[in-house]
Amino acid sequence: MLTQSDESFTLPLFREGMSHMHTPQQRTCSAAARQQSPTAVNMSVALGGNILVTGTSRGIGLELVRQLAEKTGGGAHIYACCRDPEGAGGQALRQLSALHPGKISIIKLDVADERSISAAVEAVKEQIGASGLNLLINNAAINKPASPASLLTSGKKDMMEVFETNVVGPFLLTKMFLPLLQRAAKSCSGDKDGGMSCRRSAVINVSTLLSSIEKCPETFAMAPMYPYRISKAALNMLTCCQAENFRADDILVAAVHPGWVRTHMGGEEAPLTTEDSVLGIIRVLSTLSSKHSGRLLDWEGNSIPW
Q1: What secondary structure does DSSP assign to 84-130, as a single string?
Q2: Host domain of residue 136
Q3: Do the beta carbons of residue 112 and residue 101 sit within 8 Å?
């Protein structure tokens, strides 16, 4: 099962034929990114303020916290959310926080539990004060059942649990954090850059290529994954609805596909390391504007059809 702490597995458990999921150009770009990464790790990005990331105990979430802590300026603060911050699952996150004193706050959060969401929102409110929340990254997700998650092997319980975490969780979290997002958008309204941006006020929903209805004929045979891909398609609709809903508040909302990432879930054949994927994601987030609100992009900034 894919836990809330690892959204990095966004492509199939079935690795045969996975080369079809990445064009030669994309694989070349991925290789180039890995060659550049030692230098790129030290580059600063156009992100800052208060940033909250869910599902941060490992995988993409943990790497997002690491790179954001390294690349953002002194005024940035990262709220890293996970279900078990004091237990074994939160060890890597605690170690990372110790490397950046005063820059990372670890928040206990189970996105499938409404009371946990409420408690996390209140905890962040107390720390943020009047400054607001500049960037919310809904990264936490689960995948059930285990491979192959076909029509015959997936049940009602699987579908409901996956939807609760992958769709209802981001829905409630964004809804409860909306006042803080609005506050950030208003406080930055006088900035010289103006307009929508992830530095001003934004919601990023981590989605997947498997969520694309148009691409389904190309991806389905390799990864049926009924609950997972259906939930992510629903997350895409949530992204579109939020983008329209928050447009008047100048809050940007977009979905991002992080690629097929080399983790214990993604397998050794995956073309992307977590470092490369997150490096790309952060670069993309740094360039987003109003024209990207309501869209699904990959880690290289390419548009993916709904």
Answers
A1: -TTSGGGHHHHHHHHHSTTTEEEEE--TT-HHHHHHHHHHHHHHHTT
A2: 46-298
A3: no
- This prediction's pTM: 0.87
> What's the chain's average pLDDT?
86
d(CA 34, CA 30): 6
19 located within any domain: no
Structural domain count, the chain:
1
Q: Is residue 8 part of a domain?
A: no
Is the pLDDT at 37 greater than 60? The verdict is no
Is 10 among the domain residues? Answer: no
Does residue 263 register a pLDDT over 70? no
Provide the CATH number for the domain around residue 252: 3.40.50.720
Q: Is residue 101 part of a domain?
A: yes
- Average pLDDT on 1-28 reads 41
Percent of the chain with pLDDT over 70: 81
